[in-house]
Amino acid sequence: MADNAKAVSSYAAKDIQILEGLEAVRRRPGMYVGGTDVKALHHLVYEVVDNSIDEALAGSCDRIDVIIHEDESVTVEDNGRGIPVDIHPEKKKPALEIVMTVLHAGGKFGGEGYKVSGGLHGVGVSAVNALSEWCEVEVKRDGKLHRQRYERGIPTGPVEVIGKAAKNETGTRTTYKYDYEIFQGDFTYRFETLLQRFREMAFVTRGVTLYLLDERSGNEMTFYFEGGIKSFVGYLNRNRTSIHPIVHIEKEINGTGIEVALQYTNAYAESVYSFANTINTIDGGTHLTGLRSAITRTVNDYARKSGLLKDSDPNFSGDDTREGLTAIVSVKHRDPQFESQTKVKLMNAEVQTQVQQVMGEALNVFLEENPRAGKAIVQKCLTSARARDAARKARDLVIRKSALESLTLPGKLADCSERDPNKCELYIVEGDSAGGSAKQGRDRHFQAILPLRGKILNTERARLDKILSNNEVKSLISALGTGVGEGFDISGLRYGRVIIMTDADVDGSHIRTLLLTFFFRYLPMLIEEGHLYIAQPPLYRITHGKNIYYAYAEKDREKIEKEISGKTKNFNLSRFKGLGEMNPEQLWDTTMDPESRTLLQVTIEDATAADRTFDMLMGSAVPPRKRFILTHAHEVRNLDV
């Protein structure tokens, strides 16, 4: 007992640490920007831009410029009112310095500075400052140009006047460079990621010009949408066939501004997105719940009242009323409550009732005044309901029952012996020949193989009932163990990693895209929870004497050939057309051995961008796909003929 007591670490008053200033942010960046990965890196930009958007919401800003410099520093400039630079009455420091160096400081906690704002915690820009190697802020205000510089959150000097500003010219220019001590991964800003985010911001903030420039590549883009979210819905549906005009509602209720735009199309998946104070709440929240409830209730009431839904028919489910629906709900609230600093989910309980009331009234009026559109919407829901019943019957044949677990797994599945799902991997392999090599080359203890014959159904153009009649899809769902649709349960997943392994040719790419479409539309949680991967088989085999090299990309091949050429010209180059050409040992060494393989984890950085991409590539509209092929044809390096 005495020995154990000595081993217990000290816990007294002297052991209580107090983190001064912004040190808390540097110690625990995950609490403030969601981590230290590439997603958090982009979140730094969003935090600064959100402040400029707040100025736009206050009616004081109509242009925001974002520039990525060649040294990876970022500048965000707006023509808003400019951060105040006068001395704070209590802190006896310039307001600019307080905003940049003190957590929970800003003009959004009370008073009349902002009626609506996205930056409610007051930690956004100060957190960016804390996580930056250096940061400089320039403020145009009261006819003067002010500046202060910080290094890792600490001012290097006072706020100083460095010049004059033109009469009535105001604004804030923030330039920072993220700290390599905090963000240590090999990643960088992606122009496309920022592009999608700023397009959304411009849609939900009417009348604001958003300009993005990447000095590293020369890419630039300007966004300005006078139509707001109504234009957003039109943009999302540009490759789909709509069945009625866009329904647009904008109303304020108890101080909450509510705007909704929706339209039904001939698609089978729903595309519904939510925003709170211009911030994309990717996990939804009370505003999204209110929207969905209102749509389901209103469509059911209208269908009953108009006689399109008989007394003997059950009500439409939420899935029925959202099939083919494209909708945007945007709320502007004086005091939004988010689930975390990264603002992915809105929590205000009263917003659900407010959105439900506004949406229900407006949609009911639209249906009453547009009976043709109302009938088309109800018919769409009826077809969905019938298909859902058929899908349920088909799903019952697919879902693995616990009592018959071993009997319901597909016969062609070569399962593994490990029973802990977290340690198991499922390789989805193209073709029986590759499946044979994979079965022989795998580690049977934790790697399972499921070969697919040919190409699975294009799930972008089919309802779930038709999808579940496809044998390859049925085998896949049975092997995974999660079920699908209403019966989906992530806890039933039998493999911690689900790995798509297809040939490095056009057919292989097509099969991979078909599989990704299925996972994105019907099993998205597998992607969200980080279970889906893509294997990277080598493109080339290079032999030089007794040495064998594998090249996974063109640049790898060029590098290897250059190294060999420096010694001798004698080497053999062969290109793998498919996985079936590899013997089991080669397949294990290059693609399946955890010690040497390369796996790409499938993630969804931007749901709206992914939605549009799958719709364009796999949907029924041909012209957008043709434009995409013509635009990107010059990028193709290897094309099988």
Defining traits:
641 residues; alpha+beta; Ribosomal Protein S5, domain 2; 5-stranded mixed β-sheet
In brief:
This protein has 641 residues and is an alpha+beta fold. The protein folds into three domains: 23-223, Histidine kinase-like ATPase, C-terminal domain (Heat Shock Protein 90); 229-394, Ribosomal Protein S5, domain 2 (2-Layer Sandwich); 404-537 and 600-615, Rossmann fold. 37% of the residues lie in helices and 19% in strands.
Care to describe what's here?
By secondary structure, the protein is an alpha+beta fold. The chain folds into three domains: 23-223, 2-Layer Sandwich (Heat Shock Protein 90); 229-394, Ribosomal Protein S5, domain 2 (2-Layer Sandwich), CATH 3.30.230.10; 404-537 and 600-615, Rossmann fold (3-Layer(aba) Sandwich), CATH 3.40.50. Helix content is 37%, strand content 19%. It is built from 22 helices and 22 strands. The strands form four sheets. Strands 1, 2, 3, 4, 5, 6, 7, 8 and 9 form a nine-stranded mixed beta sheet that branches. Strands 10-11-14-12-13 form a five-stranded mixed beta sheet, with helices on both faces. Strand 10 (247-253) and strand 11 form a beta hairpin.
